Amino acid sequence: MEKPEVIKRSQRRIITIMGLFLASLVGLWFWAYKTKQDVTRDMVWIPGGEFAMGESSTDEGHSEEGPAHLVVVKGFWMDTTEVTNAQFSKFIEATGYVTDAEKDFSPKDFPTAKPEDLKGGSLIFQLTPGVNPFQCGPEGPTPWWKFTAGATWRHPQGPASDIKDKMNYPVICITWKDAKAYATWAGKRLPTEAEWEFAARGGLQNKKFVWGDEEKPDGKFMANYWQGGFPRKDDGEDGFTSVAPVKSFPPNGYGLYDMSGNVWEMCEDWYSPRFYDISPKDNPLGPAVGTYDPNRTGFTEHVMRGGSWLCDQGYCFRYRPAARSGIDSISSTNHAGFRCVKDKAESN
Ligand SMILES: [Ca+2]
Ligand SMILES: [Ca+2]
């Protein structure tokens, strides 16, 4: 028979071992919880489901939105906001990545260009009086776009501008390739066009805007777009005459901000205006290659969604969830950015 002090010692050892075991379990749980929180920080879960994608009654200027068709997407996580300058800065600091606009263009892509015209930069919007936009873009010239050497994500209005006080603004003056590089670094991906529209509708079906059918409920602006005569004068009745900080307007039904306007959001898919004629129902991924449109830049395009601060009600009217457009692989502008999504992990 063991002596009482020996029993006490072995009991203490058992209690200590059990305590350590429990502490390890709690630590492990906390680590798993924190990792999950880190991975999906500033994201919301979009449940997935079936919805009517596109617009059933399109006019001539928006024919690419039809025909409306049923689509099913799986659930996914989505960034609650457009990727901000603060978030993009972390990516640049961690990787030393250099964006396309910060590099000069290749003479191989533009064999007839003068060397001074191959300087890196972005297309910057400029107020342009005296033009009728209906007689210009998208199939004609777009004189309101000015290529500006030195306009980059760090200097989004040109070399003299900066982002010092704009860290909560969406990153702009980046290409689709830059957006992809960020998404990969963040352990995320760009949304498909179908995922983007499902998320933008916020649980509503067949509504004109991401918040409903009324453009200004109770007289309030619900997004950052253009008021006034495009492209000569922006009245800024919504409070902003350019890009706005993210979260300046109420979120949609899923808690996503700025799915309407502010900056266009680049998606994973190639862009084809007629893809809806042949789109599969389940998890469509877009066409195998983007449409080559010689009336635009001549480079194939990826989808971008949601419209921007430059969309007015008369000419563009693309701050609606069904609206579609494309951005070519070499262009960066001061009205296009992106947000990311993430698939459900096994541990979620
Ligand atoms: Ca505005
Ligand atoms: Ca947006």
Question: How would you explain this protein's 3D organization?
Answer:
This protein is α+β, with helices and mostly antiparallel strands and 348 residues long. The protein has two domains: 1-40; 43-343, Alpha-Beta Complex (paralog of FGE (formylglycine-generating enzyme)), CATH 3.90.1580. Helices cover 19% and strands 14% of the residues. The chain contains four helices and eleven strands; from the N terminus they run αββββαββααβββββ. The chain has a four-stranded mixed sheet. Strands 1-4-11 form a three-stranded antiparallel sheet, with no helix packed on it. The protein has a two-stranded antiparallel ribbon with strand order 2-3. The termini are far apart. The relative contact order is 0.18. The site of one calcium ion has 8 residues, from loops.
CATH topology of the largest domain: paralog of FGE (formylglycine-generating enzyme)
Which structural class do you get from the secondary structure elements? Answer: alpha+beta
Number of strands: 11
Which sheet architecture does the biggest sheet show?
4 strands, mixed
Give the oligomer, counting copies of the same chain as homo and different chains as hetero. Answer: single chain
Number of helices: 4
Poorly predicted ranges = none
Q: Any idea of the CATH class of the largest domain?
A: Alpha Beta
Q: How big is the Rg?
A: 24 Å
Average residue-wise pLDDT: 91
Strand percentage, roughly? 5-15%
Quick one: overall form?
Answer: globular
**CATH architecture grouping of the largest domain:** Alpha-Beta Complex
Query: How is the largest sheet built, in terms of strand order?
Result: 9-8-7-10
